[in-house]
Amino acid sequence: LQVINNVGHPCCQVGIESTVAKLVPDQNQLLVFRRGGVSEAALHDVLNVQRGLDIAIVYAQKVVADHSAQNQVAPGQLLTHYAPDVPTFMVNSIPTPTTTPNPSDQDIHTWVIIDFNRRLRTLQPVVAAYLDLSPLYDTRF
User: Fold this and answer.
1) Which domain of life is it from (predicted)?
2) SS (H, E, C) 22-38
3) Cα–Cα distance between 64 and 41 in angstroms, integer?
């Protein structure tokens, strides 16, 4: 990744995931386990154009397991990789002044809200933490 970071490509403008890959020299392959902000074109540019190598970029078939005695090759391959260890809920409705919970209700002061387009902003003053991933309703930021 240090090589990729030095090629002058712009910073990732999409998502929060990193590109996870493994170089397999004896097969002249770069095995990509997870697509992320580093594009196939950028990988090709660094390996084959700038370094003069002949490396094929191959995408690994995604394997997700409930449990495994084997070590995982890349992050995110266990079914529980992104599973929080606290009760988690998806809220599908926008609270109105009449439906906004009272701070004493259901321990709302311990809640952490991850919002999108400020839909749940009325809860910000009464929860433990509030983060809006895109106040402008734009998935590119």
Assistant:
1) Eukaryota
2) EEEHHHCEEEEEECCCC
3) 27
Residue 48 vs residues 22, 26, 28, 65: alpha-carbon distances, Å: 16, 16, 11, 34
Task: Using DSSP, state whether 138 is helix, strand or coil.
Answer: coil
Break the chain into its structural domains and give their ranges. 2-59, 84-141
pTM over 0.70: no
Contact between 43 and 30 under an 8 Å Cβ cutoff? The reply is yes
Q: Coil, strand, or helix at residue 31?
A: strand
For residue 93, give the DSSP letter: S
Is residue 127 helix, strand or coil?
coil
Residue 109 is encoded by which pair of tokens? 């002061």
